[in-house]
Please model this.
Amino acid sequence: MKKLSPSRPRQGSKIRSRRPAALLGLSLLMATGLTACGSDPDLYSIAPVSGMAQPGGPVTVEIRTPVVTASLDRDEIVRQDKDYKLNMAKGNAWSEPIGDMIGRVLTRDLAQRLPGSTVFAQNDAVSTKPQAFVEVTITAFNADQQGNASLIGSLSVHGDKPGIGPNLTTPVQFETRLDNKRASTLVAGLSILTGQLADMAAQKIRSLPVLPITP
Model:
């Protein structure tokens, strides 16, 4: 009688037995990736910086919401603009729209520098009629090619009456050195530069003619 050898599983059955384990591993990798992508970013906001407080200037001042270039007007913090490429601060975002944030902090900075004036933002619920307006355009609010915090744009300060008093528009270019590449260091540097913008705006506001408030 012929002796029967033990039966072997066919090669196809081995492949089928490995397939569930491979699918399970792929599912775990996808789940891990989705968890990482869906994690909440760290939220940052620039902060007011004190400056020299001096009397003088109009009684009421309105800060118009700054106009920010589209490349910066996003949730993620733009770390640096270098070699034709925007580098993002991964996992870090602004806590509010960047134009609103700059306007809010600039308002607080100016209020501290103009103790004799009532300074308020454009969208504040204020019934007082402004005697002067501050308008800002921002084209850079990030690190420059050399790694310094940079604020570039233009500043316009004018009264509420067309043709009365100067329309003081000037280019703006401030920078400050950054000691490292942490997002918090960049945000602190941009806070300092916003304070310098407030210093410039306060100086120009004080040079406007003081007019009586009209109903």
